[in-house]
Amino acid sequence: MTAGAKFRDVLAKRGLVEAMAAHSPLSAMLVAEAGFDAIWASGFELSAMYGVPDVSVVSMTQHLDMTRAMVDRSGLPVVADIDTGFGNAINVLYVIEQYERAGVAAIVMEDKSFPKVTSLIAGGRQEMVRIEEFQGKIDAARAARKDKDLVLVARTEALIAGLGQDEALKRARAYEAAGADMILVHSKQKTPDEIEAFVKAWDGKAPIALVPTAYPQMTVARVRELRKIGLLIWGNHAVRASVGAMRKTFAQIRKDGGIHGVEASIATVEDVFDLQGMGKVRDDEKRFLR
Ligand code: SPV
Ligand code: MG
């Protein structure tokens, strides 16, 4: 079964794919351990991991390499955040080929212009491409995929750009007509109202994907009640959790003048050995080293 087929299977069986963000193979492994259905190979998280803003500074190669490593180590379907597709429809042809070869299950491409600006920033410069141009990019993605089960998610930033529900619906309909398998609609409103209104008004067949970072009242139960949601993405909680944990630990060590005060609150070395697969190394040593 291909990664895309696996994703579609989870969606068919559970009615919803729940993806958690990751920015490294280790964080992807922890996503799998926690029982999520899929990995969100987040551009925001990877940018943060490199210590740079999420404004198309991280290259396709950097994101692709990390995504490939997360596919390898997690065993879960990976949903790749390819931002704007790293250029125009011609770039998209190459990008889709590369990500499919890396083993991703789904690809999310957004209708902003390159270079993009992170969506949730207050007062961000949110420039969108024309609908026809983005339809061409969806068309290119469809033409480039070899596996018809590779899930193509078209993301509209109309609400993020402040263009309102009518424009968001118009774009979503146009992207479904161009062949997108799913529509991601993003919002930075502090409550779910804007998104819920969009979902209620959505008259297409394609399931909707949500990233409810700005409106955390949106639980899995509430998403299920909306019925039309196929993919729920927890957008940046791996990197934010690790920033919080590292800050707390580093400050404690500085304050205590040693590491004795943090031992109980951080992972043990044995825990990390387990994640690295040291048990297998032991077995392999016995078997192969002579
Ligand atoms: C990401 O995680 O990179 C996303 C979601 O695209 S957001 O940052 O909310 O735009
Ligand atoms: Mg992103």
Topology of this structure?
Elements (H helix, E strand, L loop, with lengths): L2 H12 L2 E6 L2 H10 L3 E4 L1 H7 L10 H15 L3 E4 L7 H13 L4 E5 L20 H14 L6 E6 L7 H14 L4 E4 L7 H9 L6 E3 L9 H7 L2 E6 L2 H20 L12 H8 L1 H11 L2
Parallel strand pairs: 1-2, 1-8, 2-3, 3-4, 4-5, 5-6, 6-7, 7-8
Helix pairs in contact: 2-4, 5-6, 6-7
Bound molecules: sulfopyruvate and magnesium ion.
The site of sulfopyruvate has 15 residues, from helix 3.
Describe the structure in your own words.
The structure is a single chain. With 290 residues, the protein is of the alpha/beta class. It folds into 2 domains: 3-242, Alpha-Beta Barrel (TIM Barrel); 259-290, no CATH class. The protein has 12 helices and 8 strands. The protein has helices at residues 3-14, 25-34, 43-49, 60-74, 89-101, 131-144, 164-177, 193-201, 220-226, 237-256, 269-276, 278-288, and strands at residues 17-22, 38-41, 78-81, 106-110, 151-156, 182-185, 208-210, 229-234. Strands 1-2-3-4-5-6-7-8 form an 8-stranded parallel barrel, surrounded by 9 helices. Helix 6 (131-144) links the parallel strand 4 (106-110) and strand 5 (151-156). The longest helix has 20 residues, at 237-256. It binds sulfopyruvate (SPV) and magnesium ion. Keywords: Pyruvate. This is Phosphoenolpyruvate phosphomutase. GO terms for molecular function: catalytic activity.
